[in-house]
């Protein structure tokens, strides 16, 4: 924030969140910067469109490497079975499956490239990605806000925050993380159920 102006920070955050997924670089630190610099509301307004671009570019690029991606899925049948559970079915089935995959611990930059190979349509892929990644985005931006609050509280030049404000910020962050962990565990269980249902259908 001392090196760049707000507009430049915004451009850097937007560009990194949009483009880093293409080269498999995590975007969480950029979302921290969004929270630190712009706060919750403007941080979300900045990162959500960038996330949409970041998951779209690999989806379309993967058409160029479809055969190689399908070969990779063949070499890892356990992971592939979970991802293929998202393919086929109705729009809502694909949306639900993509949402669960995004919430689960599966690395989302890899799934950006695998979705096409599992025959997931772009509409449910995009909608499910935004919904499924929302908890991670909220936690990342909240982390940035908490970092900013703690820095302000420890800076002699600032009035600082009261002990109550610091405690409330930390409790809010912990509650957000705990909720995200619980949702992730639920998503993992539901993916296992979908995987078994898919395998049962193939055996019939």
From TrEMBL:
Keywords: Membrane, Transmembrane, Transmembrane helix
Ranges for domain VTT: 25-145
InterPro entries in the cross-refs: VTT_dom
N-terminal signal peptide: none
Membrane-spanning segments: 7-28, 40-66, 129-151, 163-187
Official protein name in the record: VTT domain-containing protein
Source organism (scientific name): Arabidopsis arenosa (Sand rock-cress)
